[in-house]
TrEMBL record:
<keyword id="KW-0456">Lyase</keyword>
<dbReference type="GO" id="GO:0016126">
    <property type="term" value="P:sterol biosynthetic process"/>
</dbReference>
<dbReference type="InterPro" id="IPR014721">
    <property type="entry name" value="Ribsml_uS5_D2-typ_fold_subgr"/>
</dbReference>
<keyword id="KW-0547">Nucleotide-binding</keyword>
<dbReference type="InterPro" id="IPR041431">
    <property type="entry name" value="Mvd1_C"/>
</dbReference>
<keyword id="KW-0067">ATP-binding</keyword>
<comment type="pathway">
    <text>Isoprenoid biosynthesis; isopentenyl diphosphate biosynthesis via mevalonate pathway; isopentenyl diphosphate from (R)-mevalonate: step 3/3.</text>
</comment>
<dbReference type="InterPro" id="IPR020568">
    <property type="entry name" value="Ribosomal_Su5_D2-typ_SF"/>
</dbReference>
<protein>
    <recommendedName>
        <fullName>Diphosphomevalonate decarboxylase</fullName>
        <ecNumber>4.1.1.33</ecNumber>
    </recommendedName>
</protein>
<dbReference type="GO" id="GO:0005829">
    <property type="term" value="C:cytosol"/>
</dbReference>
<dbReference type="InterPro" id="IPR005935">
    <property type="entry name" value="Mev_decarb"/>
</dbReference>
<dbReference type="InterPro" id="IPR036554">
    <property type="entry name" value="GHMP_kinase_C_sf"/>
</dbReference>
<keyword id="KW-1207">Sterol metabolism</keyword>
<dbReference type="InterPro" id="IPR053859">
    <property type="entry name" value="MVD-like_N"/>
</dbReference>
<keyword id="KW-0756">Sterol biosynthesis</keyword>
<dbReference type="Pfam" id="PF22700">
    <property type="entry name" value="MVD-like_N"/>
</dbReference>
<keyword id="KW-0444">Lipid biosynthesis</keyword>
Length: 357
């Protein structure tokens, strides 16, 4: 069927991921290439996800547009969004060039509508879910044959951590060494079903927008931190290997230790930057103490904290220790503005897209 009023549409959702080995530093700011590899756990979409609908039609006029949480976003001046759209369009053009019967969707104006069910830019990795959902919605709209791994290369240009939200389970983003970034992609280290007992507790310490945005903060760190080179070149490569082994062997104590060490190392290079970057606050530090108390009481590591570019804590633990972990947090942090436990589960990419025809 064809006709100028036809609207082509695809909707998808993408999950949030929380890194246990942090990405903090770019070796190429235009292509969003990182100074080090990173590794994350994909969280359940039940309470943290971005929902995105992409549509195009001959009846749409004007430039491409994006509405995020009911507000129009200026995507014309966003180089990163433009890079994603350009890449996706060129892949669609290649399909159209091969098969003349395909509608020329690559020529049509795109309208994208997106919403998060959690605070945007509060250090809860909203840009990760956001760009992952945008890329997958348009890839589905264009019926692109690319795998999630190939799409991760596009999402990475939107926001580095977004490349890890295109897959479920335990996901590594390989920094790569090529200048064009073609080997800087995400890959699943293990599906969530490999270690389904993993749980993540999100402590929303603050839903305010974060002070220093990631992109600016990272550049300050790369340019000024004297500790950062050791982290990029020696510490992280060793930890990546160790934590991947811990995941394969379901060794929670090693997983927990490395997770906490890496979060602390990331915040240490932030503090070592000039001007210094502070993301943690007193409630964050109380959450760290609560984890230490729970681990001390248990006589082993049963939970691990990690913090992104904001004060919110994410606590990883195994289902069997839910009561001990929740108990410590209830008694140590009784007046937290709000906290909720969230189950991590396997996310199956490409399950949600559809193309109206
Ligand atoms: C602290 O992916 O938001 O959450 O590539 O500049 O968009 P840009 O940065 P972004 O940075 C995330 C940083 C982090 C650590 C992580 O998720 O690995």
């Amino acid at each position: 069927m064809s006709g100028s009023s036809q609207v082509y549409r695809a909707s998808t959702t993408a999950p949030v991921n929380i890194a246990v080995i942090k990405y903090w530093g770019k070796r190429d700011t235009a292509l969003n290439l990182p100074t080090n590899s990173s590794l994350s756990v994909t969280l359940s979409q039940k309470s943290l996800r971005t929902h995105t609908t992409a549509s195009c039609s001959e009846s749409f006029s004007g430039p491409d547009s994006l509405i995020l949480n009911n507000e129009p976003e200026d995507i014309q001046s966003s180089k990163r969004t433009q890079a994603c759209l350009k890449h996706l369009r060129s892949l669609r053009e290649q399909l159209e060039a091969k098969d003349a019967s395909l509608p020329k969707l690559s020529k049509l104006t795109l309208r994208i509508v997106s919403s998060n069910n959690f605070p945007t830019a509060a250090g809860l990795a909203s840009s990760a879910a956001g760009f992952a959902a945008l890329v997958r919605a348009i890839a589905d709209l264009y019926e692109l044959p690319q795998t999630p791994q190939e799409l991760s290369l596009i999402a990475r240009q939107g926001s580095g951590s977004a490349c890890r939200s295109l897959m479920g389970g335990y996901v590594a983003w390989r920094a790569g060494t090529k200048e064009d970034g073609s080997d800087s992609i995400a890959e699943e280290v293990a599906p969530m079903s490999h270690w389904p007992e993993m749980r993540a507790l999100i402590l929303v310490v603050s839903a305010e927008k974060k002070g220093v945005p990631s992109t600016a903060g990272m550049q300050t760190t790369v340019e000024t931190s004297t500790l950062a080179p050791a982290r990029f070149n020696e510490i992280v490569p060793k930890r990546m290997a160790e934590i991947e082994k811990a995941i394969q062997e379901k060794d929670f104590e090693t997983f927990a230790r490395i997770t906490m060490q890496d979060s602390n190392s990331f915040h240490a290079i932030c503090l070592d930057s000039w001007p210094p970057i502070h993301y943690l606050n007193d409630v964050s530090r109380a959450a760290m103490s609560a984890v230490e108390t729970a681990n001390r009481k248990a006589g082993k590591l049963i939970c691990a904290y990690t913090f992104d570019a904001g004060p919110n804590a994410v606590i990883y633990y195994l289902a069997e220790h839910t009561h001990e972990v929740a108990g410590v947090f209830r008694s140590v942090l009784p007046r937290l503005p709000g906290w909720e436990g969230e189950f991590a589960e396997q996310i199956r990419p490409n399950e949600y897209g559809s193309l109206d025809s």
